[in-house]
Amino acid sequence: ASVATEDGYGFVDTSTVHGKQAGNISREVSQFVESVISGSEPLVDWQDGLQSLEVANAVLESIDKDEPIVV
């Protein structure tokens, strides 16, 4: 499956393997659900998620401004 931003920038995150979705987001969500059920710590915590959003926002800002953005 492909994912696109509001501006039309697209990327592929998942692929189908043996009839199941197998991409980074699918794996992260599955692992998070397992951690909630088992009470264990998730591999990706909120700080990791926040840092990823900051990087993604900097990428979009860099594209808009056509210049590097320091994160």
Descriptive report:
The chain has 71 residues and is an alpha+beta fold. The chain contains two helices and four strands. The protein has helices at 24-38, 46-65, and strands at residues 2-4, 10-12, 16-17, 20-21. The strands form two sheets. Strands 1-2 form a two-stranded antiparallel sheet. The chain has a two-stranded antiparallel ribbon with strand order 3-4. A hairpin with a 2-residue loop joins strand 3 (16-17) and strand 4. It starts with a strand and ends in a 6-residue tail after the last helix.
Task: Give a summary of the structure in a few sentences.
With 71 residues, this protein is an alpha+beta fold. It has helices at 24-38, 46-65, and strands at 2-4, 10-12, 16-17, 20-21. The two termini are 29 Å apart.
Overall pLDDT: 79
The major β-sheet equals: 2 strands, antiparallel
What percent strand?
5-15%
Please list the strands of the largest sheet in the order they lie side by side. 1-2
Are there runs of 5+ residues with pLDDT below 50, and where? none
N-to-C order of helices and strands: EEEEHH
Number-wise, the strands total: 4
Helix content: 40-55%
Identify the overall geometry. flat
Number of helices: 2
Radius of gyration equals 15 Å
**Main structural class:** alpha+beta
| N- to C-terminal distance | 29 Å
